[in-house]
Amino acid sequence: MRKHQTSKKRGMNKRAQEILSEFVYQIIFLVILVALAISAFAVVHAVSKSRFIEKNQYTRDTALLMDALYAAPGGVVIYSGLNLTGKQFSISIQPSRVVLYDLKEK
User: pTM (2 decimals)?
Assistant: First the structure.
């Protein structure tokens, strides 16, 4: 009878170990998930502080404007609402290239 009781205890112990190991795996998964979420928020915050998207859009708009001027026949007058002085940008137009400098980064 003694053997039967010890084998029953071992069976319960084995089940407890399975539950514990499953719990540990779930905790590890949650820690990894939280770490990924925090890193995603950090990336979004860094991109929102960056002015790369704004500078990229200004350079594309200016390049498109230059292409339109080149293709337009006759004299062209430009009335642009683009005010770069408030944004602290400087534009350099070279052949086949438009470069936008951020004066705050210097």
Answer: 0.46
